[in-house]
Amino acid sequence: MSNPAPRVHTETITALDGQRFSFRMIEVLGGDFMMGADDKAANYDEKPIHQVNAPTFWMGEFPVTQVLWQAVLGENPSYFPGLDRPVEQVSWNDVTKRFLPALNVHCGKNYRLPSEAEWEYAARGGIHHSLYGYAGSNRLKDVGWYAENSHGETKAVGLKQPNALGLFDMSANVWEWCADHWHDNYKGATKDGSAWIEMGEEGRSRVLRGGSWYLYNPIYYRVSYRGSKDPGLDSDSVGFRLVLSSLQ
């Protein structure tokens, strides 16, 4: 029996200028998966492979676009202008302390960043889990914008092939912030899909996933590859994606 097609929720908000704007969230049904990697290409920080029981959640079909950021905050910080491109030059602090609270006022919901486990589970296809190296294919050019095809810039979202859940741009285009603090490996990692947070370490680096437009080596775009950045720093290669635990 085949797995059901993911459900889609359309969220509509009224922008600061009065215009109405919609974006889509994809349901990611919960399940068990093996997180990390131990193949020859795997880094130490991708080990050990461990089982995670991911909850059901909803994830943005695309990384947050410039038009959505602008609709919520009335500004566009991006280096590469284009309303359908991912917003970038936003720090973890910008996202969690400015954008998400404002969006949640608009929507009456609790939008947040994904945990690292949720991000990897969704990139792998959730219950449609595949063995693809990248999010939706073993051919990076089919799913992502990276140094060989990006022409040195971000691209509009949704132009490449999605993964099995219908999520676009999970590999490349922009790195995506996750909620978790950075850890050098997975020893002691949470196994319930929640973010791995160290209390009292607000300034500690946060996890990045997915790779970005400027990198050549395909290793950076593997679904298990991990990056990190200081939460107060931004970059023209870093954006983010929305998650909801529930539509209620």
Automatic annotation (TrEMBL):
Top-level taxon of origin: Bacteria
User: What are the Sulfatase-modifying factor enzyme-like domain coordinates in residue numbering?
Assistant: 25-243
Q: Which InterPro entries match?
A: CTDL_fold (IPR016187), Sulfatase_Mod_Factor_Kinase (IPR051043), SUMF_dom (IPR005532), SUMF_sf (IPR042095)
SUPFAM superfamilies registered for this protein in UniProt: C-type lectin-like
In Swiss-Prot or TrEMBL terms, this protein is called Sulphatase-modifying factor protein
